[in-house]
Design a protein that fits this description.
With 352 residues, this protein is an alpha/beta fold. The chain has 11 helices and 12 strands. The protein folds into 2 domains: 259 residues, TIM Barrel; 66 residues, Antifreeze-like/N-acetylneuraminic acid synthase C-terminal domain (Type Iii Antifreeze Protein Isoform Hplc 12), CATH 3.90.1210.
C-alpha cells in the first residue's frame, strides 16, 4: 500500500501529482506587500501551498557577537546569526493577514515553526500542517510538540544522517503524528545539483516507508523535475518576486515564471511515469498503418511461386507482417496480383 498524507483535503502520494510548496522564507524583504504578492504568484502559478517561517530573532538564536554566532563565508558572510534573523524574520502580526489572504485566494498556507511559541501561534491560526526545517530536524522536543497537535507534518532532512532521520520520525510518531512525510534536502544555499544524489529518494521511500519529497535549493528546476521520476511526491522551492532583490534568500529562489514552469513540468513528469504498459497507446493507433509490411514488387500470375525477389518489406502496414516473409517464400499464389499489392494470407492455399 502506498504511503499517503492529506493536507487541506488534498492527498499526497506517488499516485497523485507532485505537491508543490512555494516557500516565502525571507523573500518578503521586510514588506508585507511582497508576501501578499508571492502568495498570489504561488496561487496563479499552480502551486498547491505557500509556506512561511515562524520565528523571531530571540526564538531562534541569541543576541551575541562571539565567534560561535558569527557567519563566515557564503551569502550571509560577516553577519551574526541575530543580525541575519532580524533581517529575515517575518513579523508575527503578519501571519493572520497572510493566512486570511491565502484562504481568500484558495491556496493552502502553513509554516515552519522554530519553537513552541511559534506552534502556539500557528495553532491559533488553525494551520493545516507543520513543516520542520532541516536545521531543526535534530530538535526532537520541538518535533514532538508539533506532533502533539495531531496535524500532518513534513520534516526536511538536510544534514541529517539515516540515524537522525529515524530519530526524528520516531519523535513525530511518539508525539502523536499520524500523517508524516520527509523531504530529501541539501542545506546549501544555493546547492549544486551534483550534491543532491537523487537516488537517495527511492532508498528513503523503501527504508522509512513514508511519503517522500524534495526540498530543492538548486537554482533551476532540473533537479526538482528529475526527482519526480524517482518517487518524489512533494517539491518545495523558495520563491521570490525578483532574484536580484537583494534579500537574504532571493539569489537562490525561483522567480514567478520559473515557478509556473515547475508546476507545469513536474506534473508532466508525473503523468509521463504512468504505469507498466506494453500495449498500444491511444496516440499510436493512427500510425499503425505506417509500420512495415509485405508487398509484391512485381506482377504475379496465379500458380507462380513466391520468391524473395518478388516481395519487399516496406511501409505502409496494410500487408502481412514482415515476420511472415519466410513462411510464404516458396508458396504458390492462387490468383494473379499486380505489383505494389499488399500480401495477404488469402492469396495462398495455406501458410506455413
Amino acid at each position: 500500500m502506498q504511503p499517503t498524507i492529506t493536507i487541506d483535503n488534498k492527498k499526497i502520494s506517488t499516485q497523485n501529482p507532485p505537491y508543490i510548496i512555494a516557500e516565502i522564507s525571507a523573500n518578503h524583504n521586510g514588506d508585507i506587500n511582497n508576501a501578499f504578492k508571492i502568495i498570489e504568484v504561488a496561487k496563479y502559478s499552480g502551486a498547491d501551498a505557500v509556506k512561511l517561517q515562524t520565528y523571531r530573532p530571540d526564538t531562534i538564536t541569541l543576541d551575541c557577537d562571539s565567534e560561535d554566532f558569527q557567519i563566515h563565508g557564503g551569502l550571509w558572510d560577516g553577519k551574526t546569526l541575530y543580525q541575519l534573523y532580524s533581517e529575515a524574520y517575518m513579523p508575527w502580526d503578519w501571519h493572520k493577514p497572510l493566512f486570511d489572504y491565502a484562504h481568500k485566494l484558495g491556496i493552502t498556507i502553513f509554516s515552519s515553526p522554530f519553537d513552541n511559541t511559534a506552534i502556539d501561534l500557528l495553532e491559533d491560526l488553525n494551520t493545516p500542517a507543520y513543516k520542520i526545517a532541516s536545521f531543526e530536524a535534530v530538535d526532537l522536543p520541538l518535533i514532538k510538540y508539533a506532533a502533539s497537535t495531531g496535524k500532518p507534518m513534513i520534516i526536511s532532512t538536510g544534514m541529517a544522517n539515516a540515524e537522525e532521520i529515524q530519530e526524528a520520525i520516531e519523535a513525530a510518531h511518539e508525539g502523536g503524528c499520524k500523517e508524516l512525510a520527509i523531504l530529501h534536502c541539501v542545506s546549501g544555499y544555493p546547492a549544486p545539483a551534483s550534491d543532491y544524489n537523487l537516488r537517495t529518494i527511492p532508498d528513503m521511500i523503501q527504508r522509512f516507508g513514508l511519503v517522500t519529497g524534495l526540498s530543492d535549493h538548486t537554482i533551476d528546476n532540473t533537479t526538482a523535475i528529475t526527482s519526480v521520476a524517482l518517487g518524489a511526491s512533494i517539491i518545495e522551492k523558495h520563491v521570490t518576486l525578483d532574484r536580484k532583490g537583494g534579500g537574504p534568500d532571493d539569489s537562490f529562489s525561483l522567480e514567478p515564471l520559473e515557478l509556473a514552469a515547475l508546476c507545469r513540468d513536474a506534473k508532466t513528469a508525473w503523468e509521463a511515469l504512468g504505469q507498466v504498459d506494453y500495449g498500444m497507446k491511444s496516440s499510436e493507433r493512427g500510425n499503425v498503418k505506417f509500420r512495415r509490411s509485405l508487398y509484391f514488387v512485381k506482377d504475379m500470375e496465379a500458380g507462380e511461386v513466391v520468391t524473395e525477389e518478388c516481395v519487399r518489406s516496406v511501409r505502409p502496414g496494410f500487408g502481412l507482417a514482415p515476420k511472415y516473409l519466410y513462411k510464404i517464400n516458396g508458396e504458390k499464389i492462387i490468383k494473379s496480383v499486380s505489383k505494389n499489392t499488399p500480401i495477404s494470407l488469402d492469396l495462398f492455399n495455406q501458410s506455413k
